[in-house]
Design a protein that fits this description.
Blueprint lengths: L1 H10 L12 H39 L5 H7 L8 E7 L3 H8 L7 E5 L2 E6 L5 H12 L7 E5 L9 H11 L11 E3 L16 H4 L8 H18 L3 H18 L9 H9 L4 H17 L8 H16 L6 H8 L3 H12 L3 H17 L6 H7 L5 H12 L3 H9 L1
Parallel strand pairs: 4-5
Antiparallel strand pairs: 1-3, 1-4, 2-3
Helix pairs in contact: 2-3, 2-6, 4-5, 8-11, 9-10, 9-11, 12-13
Keywords: DNA-binding, Phosphoprotein, Transcription, Transcription regulation
Organism: Lachnoclostridium phytofermentans
GO molecular function, one term: sequence-specific DNA binding
């Protein structure tokens, strides 16, 4: 036909002339047909990919072996054993999609929240694949990613069991700081310790300006000891929250750029010991540069008196009027200088301090949430729970259960 003739002419190098006449409309028709065939194939491939991912998700995440025959029917490569690895990251979805897009050409992908399971049949490609994905993901600030893989191939029937293993091994990433690509088999005999650092108690004995360097040294020692002992991450996070609260209370009450809520949220969401180190470094630097001065001028002393009164009477009803009477100032003027000196309102400071005390009490089994709400100054249990959730994104009961688990 005309199209074959023209194609052959070009292939032979006859680009300056074409011996056989042809219709422009016919060429357009042939090109459009080819384009339609290509689009149909792309649509089929996309539908097939979505179907495969859905069926693989049932197999991997739910152990549904009934989908096995369907998978093999649509891709007979699945009848043989395959390699697989998982990606764990906090990267935004768009960035993650961009990073793994090239994988779809020769790998099968299964998504679930921040987990991505990748099945492939060529182990030699693995280092280059992961290196490219890592570079794209880590191009963003405050983003982390880890790759867990098994060296041996797995059959589809046992892939759900292997995935559960990877989920179990995820907790061990807390102490992995300089590696991104990790052989999960290395975690086979890895165990956490329930012991913490012997220096923890010493940290809470420092509260004066001249002791800040000693405090820093003790915190560094504490972090190194928990790393050496492989202390359970949950224990470390609890301890670090207490340390942060201590530093903020004793050293940086007046710091306008430090939010207790933000700091505590960052600690509670830490996935790695390096994240914890960064948070502690920020707080220590702030403590060095800005601490509570207890006598620089009259207003400083007044604010210190108000803070001391709040911390001694937080369980009682406190109002701006009652506090202003203590320091013989008008309520509006007290609001203004308190905000100027501390970077927060009196209400915010009182709420933060009550929440700190609530956390301390929740760690003791003998108190119920209703009792704790009254002990920290809230007559309404529901209002206390709502305030706690707003600050920590968890309820008091959930926090208590997690602590004692």
């Amino acid at each position: 036909d005309d199209f074959t003739f023209v194609h052959a002419a070009y292939k032979a190098g006859g680009v300056e002339y074409i011996l056989k006449p042809f219709s422009k409309e016919e060429v357009i028709r042939v090109v459009q047909e080819a384009q339609q065939q290509l689009e149909n194939k792309q649509t089929f491939d996309e539908v097939r990919r979505i179907f495969m991912e859905e069926q693989l998700g049932k197999l991997v995440f739910h152990g549904d072996s009934t989908v096995l025959n369907k998978l093999i029917k649509y891709d007979d490569i699945l009848s043989s054993n395959m390699y697989f690895f998982s990606i764990h990251t906090n990267a935004p979805h768009d960035l993650l999609k961009k990073a793994i897009q090239p994988l779809s050409r020769y790998c099968l992908l299964v998504y679930r929240k921040s987990n991505i399971i990748v099945l492939y049949n060529n182990f030699c490609r693995l280092p280059n694949i992961l290196s490219r994905i890592k570079d794209i993901i880590l191009s963003e600030n405050d983003v982390w990613c880890y790759f867990l893989y098994f060296e041996e191939k797995v059959d589809l029937l046992s892939i759900s069991e292997k995935f559960d293993k990877l989920e179990e091994y995820k907790k061990y990433l807390f102490y992995i700081s300089n590696e991104y690509i990790i052989n999960a088999s290395e975690f086979h005999k890895y165990e956490f310790s329930n012991t913490t650092s012997d220096t923890l108690e010493k940290i809470f004995n420092f509260e004066y300006r001249h002791e800040i360097d000693m405090l820093e040294n003790q915190i560094t020692l504490y972090l190194q000891e928990v790393i050496n002992r492989k202390t359970k991450p949950a224990i470390v996070i609890e301890n670090v929250i207490d340390i942060c609260l201590h530093i903020m209370k004793k050293y940086i009450k007046e710091e306008t750029n430090v939010s207790r809520k933000d700091i505590l949220n960052k600690v509670m969401s830490s996935n790695n010991i390096e994240d914890v180190k960064k948070i502690m470094t920020i707080l220590i630097d702030k403590a060095k540069s800005r601490f509570v001065s207890k006598g620089e001028n009259k207003n400083d002393n007044l604010i210190v008196n108000v803070i001391n009164y709040i911390e001694e009477n937080y369980a009682s009803p406190l109002t701006i009027d009652s506090l202003s009477e203590i320091v013989y100032l008008s309520p509006n003027y007290l609001r203004a200088i308190f905000k100027e000196k501390t970077g927060t309102t009196i209400h915010e400071y009182l709420t933060n301090y009550r929440m700190e005390k609530a956390i301390e009490l929740l760690k003791k089994k003998k108190h119920k949430v209703k009792e704790i709400s009254k002990m920290v100054g809230y007559d309404s249990e529901s209002y206390f729970c709502a305030t706690f959730y707003k600050m920590f994104q968890t309820t008091p009961n959930e926090y208590k259960k997690r602590h004692w688990s």
